[in-house]
C-alpha cells in the first residue's frame, strides 16, 4: 500500500466520486498538498482531503475508499498517516465531522476521536439534514 500527496493527474479519478467539491477547488487543494491518495499496488483505492478549521486546526473533510477496499483497515492506515503528517507539521489536534446517521462516527471513536458538539444544517427549506457531529483528537 502506498499513501502519498495527491498529484494533479489524480484529480480525474477523485472528482468522479467526490461530488462535494468542484474540480477547480479540488485542483487547488491538491496543489496546496491538502489531499492524500492511497494505492494498493497500482490500483487507486481512495483519498483523504482536509482543510484548516479557523485557519489553525486540520479538519478532515473527506475520507473515501472505493467500495471493494472498505473494511480492510485501509481507512485506519490513511487516517493515521494523515494524523502523523499533521503532528510533524506541528499541529496538536485534528478534527473531523460526520452525520449522526452515518457509521463513520464509530470508526472515528475507535481511532480516539471524541465528540465535541453538533450542528443542524438545513438541506432545503422542507428537509432537515441529520445532525452533524464534530469530533476532535489530541495528537
Query: Main β-sheet, in a few words?
Result: 7 strands, mixed
CATH superfamily: Gcn5-related N-acetyltransferase (GNAT)
Number of helices: 4
- What is the topology, as strand order, of the major beta sheet? 1-2-3-4-5-9-6
Question: Which blocks of ≥5 consecutive residues have pLDDT under 50?
Answer: none
The Rg value, from CA coordinates, equals 15 Å
> CATH class, please?
Alpha Beta
> End-to-end span in angstroms?
24 Å
**Elements, N to C (H/E):** EHHEEEHEHEEEE
Kindly name the structural category. alpha+beta
Strand residue content: 35-45%
What helical percentage do the residues reach?
25-40%
Number of domains: 1
Shape summary: globular
Structural notes for this entry:
The protein is α+β, with helices and mostly antiparallel strands. It has a single domain, classed as 3-Layer(aba) Sandwich (Aminopeptidase), CATH 3.40.630. It contains four helices and nine strands. It has helices at residues 11-17, 23-31, 74-88, 104-110; strands at 2-5, 35-40, 43-53, 57-65, 93-99, 114-119, 122-124, 127-128, 132-138. The strands form two sheets. Strands 1-2-3-4-5-9-6 form a seven-stranded mixed β-sheet. Strands 7-8 form a two-stranded antiparallel ribbon. Strand 3 and strand 4 (57-65) form a beta hairpin. The longest helix has 15 residues, at 74-88. It is globular and about 40 Å long.
